[in-house]
Design a protein that fits this description.
about 110 residues; about 90% helix
């Protein structure tokens, strides 16, 4: 079995936090019928991911990834009209998680 590089292991927590916020926020809003609860999940997880990005990669990367997180949330709405709600949420979550992992791994390699 192949060994996972340490930089990817270190990058995983922030990507998982961001993914949890996007998927969890939508899921909570949908199943509870209360958009503000979904927004709270989205906001708390986004703040947590931003803090992780800042710690691991610095302010610039954290700002860029936080902007991507917010843009993904906003972009999922018009995308949902084309491909459906869950596929849209999963698509934007994949983009954010991949970008988070790549940026964090790159930053860890430079250290």
């Amino acid at each position: 079995m192949a060994k996972v590089p340490n930089v990817l292991v270190a990058a995983a927590p922030a990507a998982l936090t961001a993914a949890s916020g996007l998927v969890g926020g939508y899921g909570v809003a949908r199943w509870s019928g209360r958009r503000e609860l979904g927004g709270a999940v989205l906001a708390v997880a986004g703040a947590g991911a931003a803090a992780q990005w800042h710690r691991s990669s610095g302010a610039g990367t954290a700002a860029a990834l936080t902007g991507l997180y917010v843009a993904a949330f906003g972009g999922s709405h018009p995308l949902a009209k084309r491909i459906g709600a869950w596929p849209s949420v999963l698509a934007v979550t994949g983009v954010v998680a991949a970008a988070s992992t790549a940026a964090t791994a790159l930053s860890a390699r430079r250290k």
